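Handout, section 3.2

Students often ask what a structure token actually looks like in practice. Rather than define it abstractly, here is a full record for nicotinamidase. The first block is the sequence as you would receive it.
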Amino acid sequence: MAEKKPVIFKPALLVVDMQEDFCPPNGSLAVAGGRDIVAAINHLLKLPFALKVATKDWHKPDHVSFAVNHPLPDTNTTPSSYATNNGTSTPQSHPKQTKQPFVDTCIIRHPDDPSQSYETRLWPVHCVQDSPGAQLIPELDHQSIHMVHQKGTDSRVEMYSAFYDPLRVYDSKLADVLRMRGITHVYVVGLAADYCVKFTALDSQAEGFTTYIIDECTEAVDPDYWETQGKAEVQAAGVKIISVTGPEVKRVVDDSGNTE
């Protein structure tokens, strides 16, 4: 009888977007409870994962996801108000009205193939490169992180996933990094469960990594959606939702770097 070939277990931890702008009390796109999960994440960062990656949303000011970058069409051909100076009326300038975050959307088209497109929600300005809001929160155990991986750097496309945008215009090369390190299993935590965590996990699974979302280590923008639909969507794709006290996390301690 042929000897059973051992299966390598080499896990990575992806800490998604634990940045100031996604955390209360001052984040421009703060997720309720976002700061409260850091203790559980720091516990995981002390475990012997083969690779520990923190991702950062890293947008330019003209990023397509910012509602302020989408002016509404002009509706008036004459000024709506005037300023008086020494008895002479002159047009009073007003800032252009723009689409609104959270409620409005935009259509994003592939730069090289406009027939490919998708609709996405618009957001407040957040995580602008080198701004205070783009920094990882100080409570996070920075010293235990092996590398920081930036995403959302291409202003033309939205990029929730740490791997690539929906149209594959931009590839962050994260899958290549994981493969070069021999990673087999990916554990995803951070913010937000229903956006960047969800799409990072889906792409990780699609790239062939056994992928987990650790339930206690993430929070959602829309908790009702996440509980009633989002979890089912990722599970249908093969992603497993696990507990920080479950056997999958215990295995990182017991079997990391070993074969089963």
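Discussion prompt for tutorial groups: The domain at 11-59+134-255 is CATH 3.40.50.850 (Rossmann fold). How would you have guessed this from the sequence alone?
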